[in-house]
Design brief:
Length: 151
């Protein structure tokens, strides 16, 4: 019963039109729905993007001629790690420059008790023959290394 009364009141309200001159049409709000909001832009998937051309200063991940380690310094155990008999591997990502020196190193997998800092200190003193492109020109290279810690 209440629904019917509500519908009758709604119909009566819709039937009343404001006093407007005949030259202006009456706008009916129900006739034109509001414009739909624009859809949100779709997130771009990394694999859908067209890769940009590599600049000469960008490091290579897999150069045709890979870098070769020519001089290494062993990583030192910290006393705390030695007493705790801690063993494992530290994985580092190195940036090897065109002259073969390591300019930047980032820890990918660490070990506690400052063993990752010890590995970083040692790796910064390592020397490589640089990676080379197809023409034999040296290129900057991103390279992953594993520094083992064994007692």
């Amino acid at each position: 019963m209440r629904c019917i009364a509500g519908l009758l009141l709604f119909a009566a309200a819709c039937a009343q039109t404001p006093d407007t001159p005949p030259s202006q049409p009456v706008k009916n709000a129900a006739a034109a729905p509001p414009p739909a909001p624009a859809p949100a832009p779709r997130a771009e998937h990394p694999l859908d993007r067209i890769p940009t051309a590599q600049s000469p200063n960008d490091p290579w991940r897999f150069p045709p001629i890979r870098p070769v380690l020519v001089h290494s310094v062993p990583a030192r155990y910290t006393e705390v790690a030695r007493k705790a008999r801690l063993q494992g591997d530290v994985i580092l990502e190195l940036l090897i420059e065109r002259d073969g020196r390591v300019s930047n190193a980032k820890v990918l997998k660490s070990l506690p008790m400052a063993l990752d800092m010890s590995a970083l200190t040692a790796v910064r003193e390592w020397r490589y023959t640089p990676g080379k492109d197809r023409n034999g020109a040296p290129v900057r290279t991103l390279w992953n290394v594993t520094v083992p810690f064994r007692l």
